[in-house]
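Standup notes
- DV: blocked on the single-chain target, sequence here:
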Amino acid sequence: MSDVYAVRRELLRDRCAAVGSAAALVSRPANVRYLAGGAPPGAVLLLGPGGDVLLCPHAPTGDPADGRTDDRLRVSLMPATDGDPVVAAAGLAISFGAESLAVEEHHLTVSRHRAMSSIAPRLRLADLGATVEQLRVVKDEEEIACLRIAAEITDHALGELLESILVGRTERHLALELERRLVDHGADGPAFATSVATGPNSGQGRHRPSDRRVEEGDFLSVCLGANYRGYRCEIGRTFVIGTAPADWQIELYDLVFAAQRAGREALVPGVAYRDVDRAARCLLDSAGHGGGLAPWTGHGVGLEIDEDPQLAPAAMGKLDACVPVTVEPGVHLPGRGGVRIDDTLVVRPEADGGPELLTITTKELLAL
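- DV (later): unblocked, structure below
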């Protein structure tokens, strides 16, 4: 893997050189991990003419959740516990002979930016922008393998919950149990806060689990994901509790299922982001639910649970192969109930079998 991280850093160095900057400072944790292999809390990465240095405010603990730092990187610990590695990086860039330094302005605070200018007034600060995020969009097969394992863990955790008794248990309890099962199956932790919504609560998008207890006839909507070696996946499913689904529940479920299938089938290399969104959204809009839909149909996943690309009506750009995304349409009827179906997939060309479905828990409307 050391070669992989070195190649990634070289790509970033080339991008910086193309805009006239000989050094770059990466401070966003996911971007640090992408380039360095590990991201101890508070660490920043300096790429400069004098070499690449990972500056850490504290000694790395070796926690697997932080990743494993590339052995080729020089690691520099701050001499004082209150030192800011961002400011130290500016001083180090000067010592390397750099005249300009590209920084992630979208991540740095104003106070840190000012502190850098204060310690190195002759160092020209340029904006690195979303350069690293753009490099992260297309995943290599090792990254996809981590996502595949994260999806397997998530499917196992959800499958075990569905085999247990659900009536009478609270949303909060079910969410905590799902997160425990993720860890039991090998996850570093949940990819995001697990959502469990029952009955009328399923009529709210992104509902936070409450003390409401599961009742017969409820919709049960869950959304969860595992974090495995830093890579995060997402799955969302909706079920009915106890009895055969009511006619309105079947109708709503079938509509969302059709929209989700249309979105999944649209995932081919070269398709516009907005066209994937349109494929799912038009079915829900035609059925009269356009006004309450989420602003996107899906998004990229990887070292963060919500990253580029965004599958949204105004999104610019086209899909490449080996880009993992979610397809997650939903319809929520306030006070009554709702349906959300959410999968993580990898864009593949038709010659390779089309989009690779990572989350495989059944999408059949089960009565639990």
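- Follow-up: The chain has a mean pLDDT of 94.
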